[in-house]
Structure formats: C-alpha cells, structure tokens
Design brief:
single chain, about 120 residues, about 0% strand, disordered C terminus, membrane, Mpo1-like, transmembrane helix, transmembrane
Length: about 120
C-alpha cells in the first residue's frame, strides 16, 4: 500500500523525485522512455494516429521497469501523476543539456555510482 505524501510545491516534489531517481541507469531508462514517447507522438501526428498507443506504453514501460527492477522503489507516478510527468520532462531536459549531475549536487544528493 502506498503512503500518500503531501508536497507544498513542485520544487519540493522535485527534490523527492530526484531522490527516487538516484541511480544513473534509472535516469537513463527514463530518458529513453521519454525520447521514444516524444518520437511516437511525432509519428502519430505526421504518419498515423495508431502510434499514439505507444506514447504511454514506451514512456511508462521504461520508467516503471527502472523503478521496479533497477532502483527498487515505487514509481512516483502512482501517487503524484501530474507532478511526476512534469519532473520527468524536467529531468529529460537537464539530461539532454548535460546539467542533471549539477542538479543532483545542487539538491545535496550525491549521484550513486553504478557499473552498469
């Protein structure tokens, strides 16, 4: 059973979100899922609406896999779906620009080193 957590702001949730994505491979799985979601959305607009089916499947599939099998925690989406989506895009942008490690340090977290 999930315990409801109350956050007063998106910035407060962001700190929690980053903590829930402490492993680099978790963040990479999210990046790949978000990238594929964006591509499938693009394909649905320009080629066929059938690609819309793959937008949530690829995004949530990659993200949830990383939480259950890599990070070992429950996806924040279950308790805070809208804020999780916003933070996923924020993390995607920070990773795309190479600023995610700096953001982790700003929040006082140390990136967890991983071999894989």
């Amino acid at each position: 059973m999930l315990k409801a957590m109350n956050f007063r702001s998106l910035e407060e949730f962001w700190a929690f979100y980053v903590n829930q994505h402490s492993m680099p491979s978790t963040r990479r799985w999210h990046f790949v899922g978000t990238l594929f979601s964006i591509l499938f959305l693009f394909f649905s607009v320009f080629f066929s609406w059938w690609f819309l089916f793959f937008v949530p499947l690829s995004g949530y599939g990659c993200a949830w896999y990383s939480h259950f099998f890599v990070e070992g925690n429950v996806p924040a989406t279950f308790g805070h779906p809208f804020w999780s989506l916003l933070c996923d895009f924020k993390m995607f942008g920070l990773m795309l620009t190479g600023k995610m490690d700096r953001e982790i340090k700003r929040l006082g977290k140390r990136p967890v080193l991983q071999v894989f």
